[in-house]
Amino acid sequence: MKIQSFPDPGSPESVRIGTINWRGLWTLYAKESRRFLKVWMQAVAAPAVTTLLFMVIFSIALSGSGRGAQGMPFSTFLAPGLMIMALLQNSFANTSSSILIGKVQGNIVDILMPPLSTIELMIGFVAGGLTRGIMVGMSVAIAFILMPNVNLEFHSIGYILYFGISASIMLSLAGLMTGIWAEKFDHSATITNFIIAPLTLLSGTFYSIERLSPFYQTLSQLNPFFYMIDGFRYGFIGRADSDLLIGVLYILALNIILSLITWRMLASGYKLKA
Fold first, then answer.
1. Which among 4, 10, 66, 207 is most buried, taking Cβ atoms within 10 Å?
2. Within a 13 Å sphere around the CA of 18, how many CA atoms are in the beta-carbon half?
3. What is the pLDDT of residue 74?
4. pTM for the predicted model, two decimal places
């Protein structure tokens, strides 16, 4: 007599709601969005203010010096770099903190038990990070538009959208991987302080790499953050330090690789399931 086997209770296979569990996916995304919107002063306003302070400080420091970059006022060159820098850092912070808080508080099971597939879990978390990153980036952009010494124009909406969204997705995936791997907040802070922050600051945010020696230019071109910032800036000022096609393909390839790694970590329950 053949005994029929059933999937474990609570596994995605035990309850299948169509090809995609749209309601569950939307619920996870809404949870991730409401989580940072409840503390919007800390999660959205504070990063925007910090970014504006960078602009104010550099504007005052270079006021009247006649300094520029790529043949334009320095503040106009700097603004897009600051915008995407804020977008990157907050996309990473949203996903990494969400997973890590769930693990530390012991309620990660509330995310693992619902009938959501691995890809649905990944999309829900990444969409939350994308939303926070875009909200911070847009708030900074609006503030820059209102500033009298910043000439923020739109040269190519397509490049702005591609590099802005792709960059946010990449850092959301990196944050998700960090949250899964980390066992305490010190681990997450280590990745932020020793990997994310240096790669962001040393990627041409505050300068054009044409000022660097050939060796350091080559080193900068290995940094994926350089292509994200350079491509995003091109969308505003119409000038780039890199081959934009290489940047598009490089970021696309990295997003695919990070997606596969993240999917595997979630599917295996690495550091999530006891």
1. 207
2. 7
3. 82
4. 0.89
DSSP string, 217-250: HHHHTT-HHHHHHHHHHHHHHS--SS-HHHHHHH
Give the tokens for residue 112. 């693992």
Helix (H), strand (E) at residue 69 = strand 68-69
- Phi/psi at 243 (5° precision): -80, 115
Can you tell me the distance from the alpha carbon of 169 to that of 124, in angstroms, rounded to the nearest whole number? 12
The pLDDT confidence band at residue 274, using thresholds 50, 70 and 90, is low
| Contact assessment for residue 231 and residue 81, using Cβ atoms and an 8 Å cutoff | no
Nearest to 28 by CA among 131, 104, 171: 131
At residue 121, what is the residue type? L
- Does residue 180 register a pLDDT over 70? yes
Phi-psi region of 119 (alpha: psi -120 to 50; beta: other; left: phi over 0): alpha
User: How many residues are listed for the chain in this entry?
Assistant: 274
Q: Exposed, middle or buried: residue 121 (CB in 10 Å: 0-12, 13-18, 19+)?
A: buried
